[in-house]
Amino acid sequence: MLLPLGLGLFACASREEIRAGRAAQQVSTDAEDDTRCRAEGEPDTPTYTACRQNLAAERARQADIDYQKARDFDRVLGGLDDR
To answer: What is the residue extent of each domain of the chain?
Structure first.
């Protein structure tokens, strides 16, 4: 009877760890982007803003490519259908 409760608590901790990891990754990414774009201009200038937007767009394109690759891989293994 305690097993489901224990598994439920483990799952919650796991989700929190995932969230914390994602938050840490976001902070790291923001710092890297800031450092990279400061070479182009100070914050709140058009060149800095354009640099940050370009980096975000490239990251979104790469995430889409990664998602499509994973989806195609799952289809090859029969893990997903075409719904």
So the answer is: 2-77
Is the pLDDT reported for residue 8 higher than 80? no
d(CA 50, CA 37): 9
Q: How many whole angstroms separate alpha carbon 5 and alpha carbon 8?
A: 5
pTM of the model: 0.64
**What is the 3-class SS of the chain, one letter each residue?**
CHHHHHHHHHHHHHHHHHHHHHHHHHHHHHHHHHHHHHCCCCCCCHHHHHHHHHHHHHHHHHHHHHHHHHHHHHHHHCCCCCC
